[in-house]
Amino acid sequence: xxxxxxxxxxxxxxTLQPLVFAMLDRFGGRNLSARSRxxxxxxxxxxxxxxxxxLTHPLVIKAVAQYVLERGARPLIADSPALGxxxxxxxxxxxxxxxxxxxxxxxxxxxxxxxxxxxxFGFIDIAREAIESDFIINLPKLKTHRQMILTLGVxxxxxxxxxxxxxxxxxxxxxxxxxxxxxxxxxxQRISPAVTILDGILALEGEGPGKRGVPKEIGLLIGSDxxxxxxxxxxxxxxxxxxxxxxxxxxxxxxxxxxxLSIDGQLEPVRSFELPRSVPSLLYGPRILQRFLxxxxxxxxxxxxxxxxxxxxxWDICPAxxxxxxxxxxxxxxxxxxxCFCCIEVCPHGALHTVDPMPAxxxxxxxxxx
Length: 370
Description:
It is built from 13 helices and 16 strands. It is of the alpha/beta class.
């Protein structure tokens, strides 16, 4: 049985810190020693202020780091951001200020090891620290995700894929959403964090996980030694079927969700949490029609001219090289676009969003009239 702790909290440190300490005590933190190498893996996808709800809150990270230090262990806070220098992310997020009183190392992942995560992927590059650490503390943020619907405990560990290897995997699996979800599940199984604590105090709804999303106060901190159990619990809170979340659907098909949940705390539903509209896999429909369906019926990214600064973040990250930044306005090559929406995720100005092509809008209008 997988134990999940749910606690109501705010970002007031006097409230937050004892809750984090109790969760770490419950899920193996007491076993840390002076020789323990501890990896703390937050969500540090890009530079953003805490009130934007894009990143794990600095005080959650501080509480975890303080706990590790008080047990004499050696913490490392690391991630592989999608955009921006690591120093700028720490500064603008408030993490540098929060950690200033503590002697803790913060840096991006740099080296990778070839690790076998099983078929069909075989050996892939995973951050050395995620493999060699004695104890991994996974600190995801509760956010929506245009491709995976939600990014929670399992998805957060995709950040252990270093640098531009992430968009490479988007390119290799992006046309097949179930395959990408399977990749995420198998990375989680291989890294196997000792404890996951989800920052759901201020969540992100709508067109996340980037700056098009909208912060929403949920007021919850959720902990477990099983990230899949946390993801399932969030589905209960948001009144979603696990099958609606590609990661959980894949995990269920692999027999990883058979263990019942034991909830410690109040599981109260959160209604009116806005999810992104799901995007079908590019492999849906008869093969002969897939290109036609992709061009005329799948949502596509567009840029708002008054917000776009032509900074280059979107075309740099695009794994399919489907954005032409040499012209103004940006030109999207929709026949190449794999609908991973990395461009929307990393845009520092919130200038990109999705729209439906005209044929898709007409079909939706006709169906609504029936």
